[in-house]
Fold these 4 entries.
Entry 1:
Amino acid sequence: MEMLILPVHQTVVLETPKTGSLALRAMLAPYTVPQSDKAPRHIGHDAFRRNFAPDLVMGFGRLPQTVAVVRAPLERMQSWYRYRRRPQLKGLPASTLGVSFEGFMLAYLEGGRPEMANVGRQDRFVGWDGVHARVDHLFDYAQLSLLEQFFSALTGDALTLPERNKTPKRVRADYTISAEVLERFTTDNSAELAMYGAVAAAGHLMRPGSGAKFSSWAH
């Protein structure tokens, strides 16, 4: 699948993994076109600006606004762990079957990142500098009604997110971890947690200057 681009609305969605991006893609399908088969789905802001934004600027005459969804970091780790417990991954390097959640978290924290614990950081994905992200519009996965409102205003249509790519309920997981591992995760991922805290507090966190750009396209 290619990068998610809304050409008429000069908007690019940067699809953060494990934040409902397939549902968002389905909701926006009538408004999107692919850039090319060389533009992958899960590309972060810096790689987007470096490798793909110049072509879009040539086509649009300006840099498109960017949108991304972020999720509570520990909840996102739980989602990855459960997703990788699916029976079809059994025996593959990406599988977490037979691995406790604590073992999964330790594999993530110890830095070698075996395939089953290969999870990227959201603060890096959105270009978080400790105060602001480089993405224009960040939405909280726990408050997706704000994302629906944003795209409804942008497109002029009433939009709702469908359910897509849910891990089957039969895939069960125990998320028990020790206080020590949780503290280590909190310390090592402090920037990601701070970024998510800012987005969760706002619901829709806008980069300074991006609000006027959105307003001009929404009306």
Note: The mean pLDDT is 89.
Entry 2:
Amino acid sequence: MTSLIRSLAERSLLPVLVAVALALSPLSARAANVEADSRVESQARAKFSEGNIAYDLGEFQKALDAYSEAYRVMPLPGFLFNIAQCHRQMGRPERAGFFYRRYLTLSKEEPSNAALVRELIAEMDEAVRREQQRRQTREETAREQAKAAALRAQTEAIAARRVQQGEGKGALVPRAKASARSEAQVKGDNPLTKWWVWAGAGAVAVIAGGIVYAATAPQPRPTTLGTVR
């Protein structure tokens, strides 16, 4: 009998206990969520503070890493603006423009600095355009230099082949001409081989002999009588 009363009493209390547990469970879950959110927020704030310190020191890559980690922990659009600022400081206009746009797109309401952000987006777009133009100019210059180098190499190769061909075919011609000129000088230009030189020498010898004879011959006797005074 006692056991039956105890069993009935336990059964009558069971719905009450279940109701109390159900009533208390949302409170505990909400408390756990609040605690978890608080922990996440603390982590995000810590990373955000770390990023601010690095940004003030000019350590933009370190600041970028901290802001990115803060966004992973708590994806607030405001972190995207800071990320964009880091990319702008590091000379990455294309990436900076991307994060500025994401900041405006993901913000539930238009941010108070929306006008400034739009100006920054226009500035980044212009920087990207100038960089593309400079890249195109460098590529065109490199192509022109490559063409000029190829043409110069081709010209030098042609000149080298011509020199080689000239040495192989015409190298003996100047020597043959030089030999011919030497023989001509020996045979034709040598005074001893020309007849008129010998003839002139003979005439000079005859004249010289006559002069010598006239100077050394005895004086002829006069053929007329002398005058008597």
Note: The longest helix spans residues 114-169.
Entry 3:
Amino acid sequence: MTTVWQGLAMGACILGLTACGPLNEGDQGAGAVRQALNYLPLPGQEPATEAAPFVVTRAMVDQLPGDVMVVEAYEGTSRALMVPAAINLNRVTWISEDEASITTENGIVIATRGFPRDLMAASVIESRRALAAGGGNAVRTHETLSDLDQISTEVLQCSINSAGPETIRIVELDVFTRRYEEQCQNENLSFTNTYWLDGSGQIVRSRQAISPELGFLVLDRP
């Protein structure tokens, strides 16, 4: 039976906010970052429905040292900031205060840690090449943990197509982009990732499937 990753699993752990490095040393942005903890559920809790999700402002982003990534989960009801913990060429590991992490390769998620049913590893080089070429076919591999804590490997056939130009708003700034959709499937899974690329070809926003239990994460690069 095909499982379609249409939404986000409720009641699972969610990102905290990073306070590593300079944020622990009296930086002006630290207070704004830690304030977000008031809006995020603890591991095992569902996102709060009575309070609005944490709002990220341009002034807040400008106060933070270095790069930042805004992560949304649970269909936008939870939001957090993450910063780089490690950079290795085109791979960046982004980390949160509770040590949940997302590793991206040229903007495409290749691993997570600290989430429900993590994406242990992914091979996405063909997907990135198809994006750079303006579309095409790709094979990607996902490795996740099974219920028995064993690695389950899924090989997916994907088709990447341009959905045309689109102006999006990222943290109070309008960004002209071209949107691409990546439709992936095999006999067990089916999902569609969406990427927004700026004029230089960088992924500035994406909505990417992680696992059936977690669903999708939205990643913004202000």
Note: Helices lie at 29-35, 58-63, 125-132.
Entry 4:
Amino acid sequence: MPHRPYRLRVNDWSALEDLYLRFAEDPGWPQEARARRAWEHLVQTWQVGAWLGDAQVAVADHGGEPVGFAAVTLALDEPQLGRAMEVGTFVAPAHRGRGANDALKIWSAQAAVRLGAAWLTACIPVHNARARRAFVKVFPGAEVYEHPESAGPWREYLKRRAFAAGEPVRLYVVHLSNFSHLR
């Protein structure tokens, strides 16, 4: 039986809260946002970013139930590279492999373009093979960096993100020129 398409609700903070209450203990939930205070701080950061025009969050809805999210936030904005947005996602276990990830990732590229970005990035922990496969499935041409010394112009950004994550990460970088028609 084909899976019904996902509806994406942008900056729906109530649906995002419902998602947290249901899935914060899931192993796939962002590690740094499991504690209540950390989650509330993260959401406040996204809300301010949305107000400033530097962030958007989409909640994937299936049958009136939130089943995943994608947060697109400002990664960097500098003359050498231009504007880059970072995406982070979560999809409920029952909806993995059923199209929610694809819908959220494609939305994230579209949102990044609308927010004026030339690049979409993702910092994925080295040990998270499922998340790496999911990202590359949607963005097969992504550049991948694991070591700052080989990351060229992304060196400092990769160092900061690995430090913030507290674990080794791989930086995935997608040039959004292929998505410019989606403005």
Note: The mean pLDDT is 92.
